Amino acid sequence: MAHNLQNLTPFEPGKSGNPAGRPKGLPNSKTILNKFLALEEKVRNPVTGLEEQMSQLEIIYLQQIAKARKGDLKAMKEIMDRLEGKSMQSVDHTTQGEKITPIIDYKDVFPDNSIQKN
């Protein structure tokens, strides 16, 4: 039994669901944010105390560092996550110490045998 995906969408094949869409040449959000984050100004570096020319992005990072230096654990975690990557979280799927082994009978899922098991 072949699945007909065309019946699952209200759009005709080859026709866009949003024909007007975003006009060509209009910058996306990332482009706009990068433009404003790159703007520079002279500010006092909260770490060194010196006046420096910095981008808005550098200012934001320095504010985060300043918070972490004052003991803000959330700020510290954000910095470490940015540097090291977020810690992997494992979930132990056990029941009374026994691992759960899912059993799938593909005949129930694909009664016409349209998928082959490896």
- Beta percentage is 5-15%
What class do helices, strands and sheet pairing give?
Answer: alpha+beta
Q: Ranges with pLDDT <50 over ≥5 residues? A: none
Q: Strand sequence of the main sheet, in spatial order?
A: 1-2
Q: Could you give a short account of the major beta sheet? A: 2 strands, antiparallel
Helix-strand layout with pairing:
Elements: H1 29-37, E1 40-44, E2 51-55, H2 56-69, H3 73-84, E3 94-95, E4 98-99, H4 106-109
Antiparallel strand pairs: 1-2, 3-4
Describe this structure in words.
It is a single chain. This protein has helices at 29-37, 56-69, 73-84, 106-109, and strands at 40-44, 51-55, 94-95, 98-99. It has 118 residues and is α+β, with helices and mostly antiparallel strands. It has a domain at 31-83. α2 (56-69) packs across α3.
Short account of what is shown:
0% of the residues are buried. Helix 2 (56-69) packs across helix 3.
Keywords for this entry:
two-stranded antiparallel ribbon, two-stranded antiparallel sheet, 118 residues, alpha+beta
